[in-house]
Amino acid sequence: MVQPAHNDAAEQGLSAPGAQDRLSLSRLMVSHYRNYGMAQLDVPASPVVLYGHNGAGKTNILEAISYLSPGRGLRGARLADLNRRTAEGPAGTTWSVAATLETALGPVRLGTGLERKADQPEGDAERRVVRIDGETVRGPAALAEYLRLTWLTPQMNGLFMEGASSRRRFLDRLVLGFDPDHGRRVSQYERVMRERTRLLRDGGADDAWLSALEAQMAESSVAIAAARRDVVARLRGALAASVGPFPSAAMTVTGDAEDGLDSQSALDVENWLREQLAQSRLRDGERGRASFGAHRTDLEVVHLVHQMTAADCSTGEQKALLVSIVLAEARLQAMQQGSAPIMLLDEIVAHLDGVRRAALVDELLGLGVQAWLTGTDRPLFEALEGRACFMHVENGKVSPAND
Ligand SMILES: Nc1ncnc2c1ncn2[C@@H]1O[C@H](COP(=O)(O)OP(=O)(O)OP(=O)(O)O)[C@@H](O)[C@H]1O
Ligand SMILES: [Mg+2]
User: Fold this and answer.
1) Cβ proximity of 339 and 331 under 8 Å
2) Cα of 58 to ligand 2 centre, how many Å?
3) What distances in angstroms separate CA 74 from CA 214, 257, 343, one per listed residue?
4) Domain ranges in the chain?
5) What are the residues facing 36 on neighbouring strands?
6) 226-236 average pLDDT score
7) For the domain 158-318, what is the CATH code?
8) Domain 1-148+341-403 has CATH 2.60.40.420
9) Is the separation of the CB atoms in 106 and 119 below 8 Å?
10) What is the pLDDT of residue 350?
11) pLDDT digit string (tens) for 21-52?
């Protein structure tokens, strides 16, 4: 099942000037990952097009890449579900993803996967391990210091119609691209919040211990809110300027700490939050969740041309708004950090009309983004012929197809 894909960048003439400054993957290897046995992709810094029929394994490749950044991956799947299953039942080996990332400071090897302790039965004692240049690191948060990644998937079509949690995750991913510590901050906050909720639910918790947890929650909430507000403010200019047919937009972040920071000092907001948490212990214990904090934040998006909140826009307009946001993010990162993030665009092209498709391709090429695009048919990507690395995906195998 090994798939050597000799897709030498120079051979294909796809190493555009300045390509060495791009953030790009030059090699991706997946093992026992969903419908893949073993696959290796060697790709240039240019956009990569993965095409093939439904169920071939295109999204699985993008999802595998998404685990090279902190968080729960592109589909939010359970880690054990990524293990390859075959008709004969579970294959018994755990999944891994490894890549060589090209950065302005040279190549970095990133790897992650599920590891099982040898003496444990399947499903037990499995945990995600992360390696950077061969060294095991403490958790996935460190990956954000190397790989900046952004994605758009069909599952995100409902983002503006769903509950706040998906928008908050989207916002936190935007923040991560500018502030690699953000992931660590958010997961630490969530850990402390879970511990407080557990103590309140079980009852009999020590008052001083609860106060200490609440102080940590208040402090983290303010730090998280400040980072979110900062990135939304930075994106404001880039978003207000529309790119061709993609609409200009405005983003606002609302939340317990975020709203307070409009008019009060960080310390005042922190004190206020701590008091609110202390006062809501009884209720929070009964409801099994905290009534205040960074986990309640929401992101509001307005289509500026129509002066319409995103939830009231048409499906196509909502999609265009999401494209506007990720392009603004890419432009801003290119400007402020010297290179755009790697972008995973799952089935985006098929949903755009000809004008928007051409505009997206122009923008991606102009920004020098290594965008990974998927679709069922190669002709959809006509505008990228000769300018992208084309890969054909079939039944868990990927082969270069640049002729
Ligand atoms: N753990 C697993 N083990 C084996 N196969 C899996 C596993 N999880 C998912 N699959 C299979 O992987 C296949 C490819 O899925 P993927 O989502 O990558 O397809 P795709 O090429 O993106 O298709 P589409 O064009 O329909 O979006 C599917 O048939 C799916 O059932
Ligand atoms: Mg797919």
Assistant:
1) no
2) 5
3) 31, 28, 12
4) 1-148+341-403, 158-318
5) 33
6) 96
7) 1.20.1050.90
8) no
9) no
10) 86
11) 789 999 999 999 999 999 999 999 999 999 99
Instruction: Name which residue sits closest to atom 12 of ligand 1, judged by CA.
Output: 35
Pocket of ligand 1 (CB under 6 A): 34-35, 52, 54-60, 81, 83-85, 376
Helix (H) or strand (E) holding 65: helix 58-66
Tell me what the mean pLDDT of segment 283-308 comes to: 96
Read off the pLDDT of residues 213-222 as tens digits, 9 standing for 90 and up.
999 999 999 9
Residue 227, pLDDT > 90, answer yes
* Separation of CA 55 and ligand 1 centre (Å): 5
Residue of 1, 31, 35, 88 to mutate, ligand 1, most atoms within 8 A of C-beta: 35
Structural contact between residues 400 and 391, judged by C-beta atoms closer than 8 angstroms: yes
| Tally of CB atoms within 10 A around 275 | 13
CB under 8 Å to 100, separation ≥6 — which residues? 25, 26, 27, 107, 108, 109, 110
Tens of pLDDT, residues 13-29: 444 435 457 899 999 99
Q: In the numeric block, which tokens belong to residue 191?
A: 């850990």
* pLDDT range class, residue 125, cuts 50, 70, 90: low
Q: Which two tokens stand for residue 95?
A: 């999944």
Report the SS3 class of residue 166: helix
Ligand 1 centroid, distance to 151 Cα (angstroms) = 18
Residue 81 Cα: closest atom of ligand 1: 1
Q: What pLDDT sits at residue 295?
A: 98
- Helix 207-240 / helix 315-337 crossing angle, nearest 10 deg: 90
User: Smallest Cα–Cα separation from 128: which of 207, 62, 200, 73?
Assistant: 73
Burial of 317 (0-12, 13-18, 19+ CB in 10 A): middle
Bridge partner residues of 106 (DSSP): 103
Mean pLDDT of the chain: 91
CA of 172 to the centre of ligand 2 (A): 24
- Amino acid identity, residue 345? L
Which tens digit of pLDDT belongs to each residue from 334-345? 999 999 999 999
